[in-house]
């Protein structure tokens, strides 16, 4: 009995609930709204706020009912519960969009009913309601749902009033943040008239550093809106104060927005005032400020570039520049010979000028070669008097350098050669000789070669070597030359594009001490901004950045090298082909042998980099492309997929013969990859190779025969299916003529009609019906393959598999290549 009574009670409750639901269903939308909007249950009123948009849609056809709903919204806005007001404010943007879409039936609904609620909530006592209203206001401005006049008359005055001195600190900070975010949306005129005076006042708020921090964080945005004149007259003095604020968080915010402030300033102000100001931030006592400053340093330097300049207009033509440097170096060498050689040197020059070709006439090797025996005798006498290094030590140094020269590409060996060359140069200066090793090492295959210096060497090397001449009668020649070399080294880093102090600070970012005192990631920030700095300085000042770039390229952190690998193609575009071949190609080669995390950066832009190289240099990489097939992790299939995509682009850079000899094996290897996505990308690569080889009939016939043998006649059904897909793609992309297709690919393709695997026959049916029969060429009765094509299609229409029968009989308009071919083989992973 007890169980029966419980059952009866439960049934009664259920009936009551059903009656309640049925009563709500009988109410009109406005009736339900009135019923719950006055409920004492908070959750019911929250539910009303959530359902306002649905209620409006339900009554959208009746203008009077829409106005009634909007009036209820105004009533709900006065709810005493903050969660209800916050819920209402979240729905305001959606309701505003609805009102905008139905503007003819409910004109001025937003500005009359909704916007006053948003403005009122900006000063609400509850933090959640204020935050929600601020977010809603920004959304409404972004969607351009507020009229410009309403913004000036209703919104802006309220925000300015909220930043008044008598406002609470929290409200003042929030209002200033909204003002800064609104400035780009409302434009220059409104910002200058309504916001700018209060913004300048808040920058000097002595009581609350939070307000100053908000101003500092958004200073660049305000400068960008008001323009250069207002920035320099009104904002820049405030910015100077913020950069010297006693709170490190404010100074850090200034460092982070420095680039945008600089972009809004004139070049004179940028160079005279902002540069020194930024230097003070770099040397700030707070590590966090220094860290932010160094992260923004490269961006700040990039603002010194001329807005009308590009990578090709910073300097003269690179060949003319190299020629001018070579001529300058040669002239210095000839003057040196005239001063040190006397009459004997003049005779040597006259004799040499008759025997030496014109292009070799200014090579310093021909000037000192003949007097060597006499100089050696004199050297022995001087060594006795001056206690110089014995000749044996000199010969040992020469032998060591000769042995290391073939391995100069290794960075460690290069460093050793530099040290040994410096030691040898020092002994030469002590003895009064112009040593042969003063010539650039890369210009000769051995220390005594008579070839000209390589045109790819940096101008600094030629300028430095040509300037190191010594008079034998000067006892203090070693000291004076040492001072000259140090001075030349300082001049070597000089340029006039950006303030030298900024460049020196940027170059110091690779200093290991910076990682300990500033930021462990400082080298990566340096690498990230280096292309922008290089573009600003121009290729004529590349020598200023070369050492830094090489240091970053050999950094122990793979993230630093990865950053450079992803941007090396951009740097190559800035430097041009000659500097790229001389300085970037060795680093590019080292990246090719690096970790996969670094190699992927090179691989993603392989085409962009190789197309900038000379054809002979570019061909050398054909032998290295196969190295990309090997990865540290065999499961990294995206690496191989990216390789296939890059190979498609690389086809245009090489001849048909090179494509056949080097890229064809890679494509066929990728077509047999274990991962389906890699294979399908490779099939497209094969079709593009067919297009490339179509200009050479012999190579094309050979490649098509190989495709038939390896794919159409393969024992793997996925390979046979791939052959059908390649045929379909070749026709749709017009990779070869229809005559060539009919002769070499169509007969083996039709043989797949008897394939035992249905998936192969399905793709064959799609290829015949959707691709071949759309071409009038295959419908022509004069075509010798028409009968075989029709016979195959009839056989597929009577196939035992229903999918094959369907695609052979019907031509669905929506089933195209990308949808069907891929979906059919989705199980071939």
UniProtKB/TrEMBL annotation:
GO function term, MF aspect, one: protein phosphatase regulator activity
HEAT repeat ranges, renumbered to this chain: 155-194, 235-273, 745-768
Span of domain Putative WW-binding: 362-387
Residues in coiled coil: none
GO CC field: cytoplasm
This protein's record includes keyword Membrane: no
Pfam families: HEAT, WRNPLPNID
Segments for region (Disordered): 322-350, 442-495
KW Cell division (keyword) present: no
Keywords: Phosphoprotein, Repeat
Domain of life: Eukaryota
Annotated InterPro entries: ARM-like, ARM-type_fold, HEAT, HEAT_type_2, PP2A_Regulatory_Subunit_A, WRNPLPNID
Compositionally biased residues, Polar residues: 323-332, 446-455
Function: Regulatory subunit of serine/threonine-protein phosphatase 4. May play a role in regulation of cell division in renal glomeruli. The PPP4C-PPP4R1 PP4 complex may play a role in dephosphorylation and regulation of HDAC3. Plays a role in the inhibition of TNF-induced NF-kappa-B activation by regulating the dephosphorylation of TRAF2.
Quaternary structure annotation from Swiss-Prot or TrEMBL: Serine/threonine-protein phosphatase 4 (PP4) occurs in different assemblies of the catalytic and one or more regulatory subunits. Component of the PP4 complex PPP4C-PPP4R1. Interacts with HDAC3.
Protein name as annotated: Serine/threonine-protein phosphatase 4 regulatory subunit 1
Species of the source: Onychostoma macrolepis
């Amino acid at each position: 009995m007890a169980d029966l009574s419980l059952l009866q009670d439960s049934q009664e409750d259920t009936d009551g609930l059903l009656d309640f639901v049925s009563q709500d269903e009988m109410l009109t939308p406005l009736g339900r709204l009135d019923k719950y909007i006055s409920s004492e249950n908070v959750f019911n009123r929250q539910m009303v706020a959530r359902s306002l948009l649905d209620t409006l849609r339900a009554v959208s056809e009746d203008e009077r009912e829409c106005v009634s709903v909007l009036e209820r919204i105004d009533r709900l806005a006065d709810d005493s519960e903050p969660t209800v007001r916050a819920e209402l404010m979240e729905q305001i943007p959606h309701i505003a969009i609805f009102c905008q879409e139905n503007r003819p039936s409910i004109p001025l609904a937003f500005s009359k009913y909704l916007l006053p609620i948003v403005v009122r909530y900006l000063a609400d006592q509850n933090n959640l309601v204020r935050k929600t209203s601020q977010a809603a206001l920004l959304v409404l401005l972004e969607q351009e749902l507020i009229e410009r006049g309403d913004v000036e008359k209703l919104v802006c005055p309220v925000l300015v009033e909220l930043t008044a001195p008598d406002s609470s600190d929290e409200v003042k900070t929030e209002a200033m943040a909204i003002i800064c975010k609104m400035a780009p949306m409302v434009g220059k005129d409104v910002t200058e008239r309504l916001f700018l005076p209060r913004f300048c006042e808040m920058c000097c708020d002595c009581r609350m550093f939070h307000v100053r921090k908000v101003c500092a964080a958004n200073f660049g945005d305000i400068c960008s809106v008001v323009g250069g004149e207002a920035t320099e007259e009104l904002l820049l003095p405030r910015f100077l104060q913020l950069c010297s604020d006693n709170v490190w968080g404010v100074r850090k915010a200034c460092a982070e927005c420095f680039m945008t402030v600089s972009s809004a300033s004139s070049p004179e102000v940028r160079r005279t005032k902002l540069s020194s100001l930024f230097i003070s931030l770099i040397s700030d006592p707070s590590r966090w400020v220094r860290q932010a400053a160094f992260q923004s340093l490269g961006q700040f330097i990039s603002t010194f570039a001329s807005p009308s300049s590009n990578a090709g207009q910073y300097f003269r033509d690179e060949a003319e520049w190299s020629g001018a440097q070579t001529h300058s170096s040669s002239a210095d060498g000839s003057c040196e010979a005239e001063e040190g050689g006397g009459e004997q040197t003049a005779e040597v020059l006259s004799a040499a000028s008759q025997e030496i070709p014109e292009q070799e006439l200014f090579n310093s090797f021909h000037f000192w070669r003949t007097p060597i025996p006499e100089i050696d005798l004199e050297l022995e006498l001087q060594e006795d008097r001056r206690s110089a290094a014995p000749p044996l030590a000199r010969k040992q140094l020469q032998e060591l350098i000769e042995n290391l020269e073939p391995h100069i590409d290794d960075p460690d060996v290069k460093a050793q050669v530099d040290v040994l060359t410096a030691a040898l140069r020092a002994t030469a200066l002590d003895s009064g000789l112009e040593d042969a090793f003063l010539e650039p090492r890369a210009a000769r295959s051995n220390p005594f070669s008579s070839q000209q210096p390589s045109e790819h060497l940096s101008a600094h090397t030629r300028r430095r070597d040509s300037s190191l001449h010594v008079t034998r009668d000067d006892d203090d020649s070693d000291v004076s030359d040492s001072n000259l070399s140090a001075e030349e080294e300082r001049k070597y880093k000089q340029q006039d594009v950006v303030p030298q102090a900024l460049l020196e600070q940027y170059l110091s970012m690779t200093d290991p001490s910076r990682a300990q005192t500033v930021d462990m990631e400082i080298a990566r920030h340096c690498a990230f901004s280096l292309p922008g700095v290089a573009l600003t300085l121009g290729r004529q000042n590349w020598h200023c950045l070369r050492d830094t770039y090489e240091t970053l390229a050999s950094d122990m952190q793979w993230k630093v090298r990865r950053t450079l690998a992803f941007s090396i193609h951009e740097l190559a575009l800035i430097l041009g082909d000659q500097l790229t071949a001389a300085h970037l190609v060795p680093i590019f080669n080292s990246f090719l042998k690096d970790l996969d995390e670094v190699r992927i950066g090179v691989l993603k832009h392989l085409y962009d980099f190789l197309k900038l190289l000379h054809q002979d240099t570019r061909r050398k990489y054909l032998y290295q492309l196969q190295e990309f097939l090997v990865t540290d992790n065999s499961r990294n299939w995206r690496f191989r997929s990216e390789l296939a995509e890059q190979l498609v682009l690389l086809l245009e850079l090489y001849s048909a013969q090179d494509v056949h000899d080097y890229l064809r094996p890679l494509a066929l290897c990728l077509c047999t990859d274990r991962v389906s996505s890699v294979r399908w990308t490779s099939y497209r690569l094969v079709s593009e190779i067919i297009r490339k080889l179509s200009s050479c009939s012999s190579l094309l016939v050979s490649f098509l025969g190989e495709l038939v043998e390896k794919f159409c006649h393969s024992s793997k059904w996925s390979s046979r299916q791939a052959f059908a897909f390649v045929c379909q793609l070749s026709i749709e992309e017009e990779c070869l003529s229809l005559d060539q297709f009919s002769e070499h690919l169509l007969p083996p393709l039709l043989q797949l009609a008897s394939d035992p695997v249905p998936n192969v026959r399905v793709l064959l049916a799609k290829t015949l019906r959707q691709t071949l029969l759309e071409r009038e060429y295959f419908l022509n009765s004069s075509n010798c393959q028409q009968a075989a094509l029709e016979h195959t299609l009839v056989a597929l229409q009577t196939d035992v598999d229903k999918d094959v029968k369907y695609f052979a009989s019907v031509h669905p308009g929506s089933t195209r290549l990308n949808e069907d071919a891929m979906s059919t083989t989705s199980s071939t992973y």
